[in-house]
């Protein structure tokens, strides 16, 4: 099923559905208010398997063709927001040690 889906570039229509459950975001919120809830989508097993196969193939292609910037943390094994933050902190410390101006902006 996975090979056929990838070969034909089609995901079966029965794999495009999700069971959506509303869950209160955190305790203490008013359960009578809709904004207190967040949706959780449970996808089919096969759609998750196909998603992982495609993600792994995409990551492999990007890495083998050197298409990801070296500072890219997302979608890399062993990288996370924590490693990205540690990289920024290391640059700040290096700049401060070298008496350079440091500026951080937010988009």
Provide an overview of this structure:
The longest helix is centred in the middle third of the chain and has 20 residues, at 45-64. With 107 residues, the chain is of the alpha+beta class. The radius of gyration is 21 Å and the shape is flat. The chain has helices at 2-8, 45-64, 81-97; strands at 18-24, 37-43. The protein has two domains: 2-67, no CATH class; 70-107, no CATH class. The protein starts with a helix and ends in a 10-residue tail after the last helix. The model has no long low-confidence stretch (mean pLDDT 90). Helix content is 41%, strand content 13%. The protein has a two-stranded antiparallel sheet.
Fold blueprint:
Blueprint: H1 2-8, E1 18-24, E2 37-43, H2 45-64, H3 81-97
Antiparallel strand pairs: 1-2
């Amino acid at each position: 099923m996975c090979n056929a889906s990838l070969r034909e570039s089609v995901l079966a229509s029965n794999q495009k559905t999700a069971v959506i459950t509303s869950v209160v975001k955190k305790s203490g919120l008013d359960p009578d208010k809709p904004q207190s809830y967040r949706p959780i989508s449970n996808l089919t097993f096969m759609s998750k398997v196909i998603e992982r196969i495609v993600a792994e193939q995409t990551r492999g292609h990007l890495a083998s063709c050197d298409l990801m910037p070296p500072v890219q943390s997302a979608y890399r094994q062993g990288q996370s927001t924590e490693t990205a933050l540690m990289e920024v902190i290391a640059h700040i410390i290096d700049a401060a040690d070298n008496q350079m101006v440091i500026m951080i902006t937010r988009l």
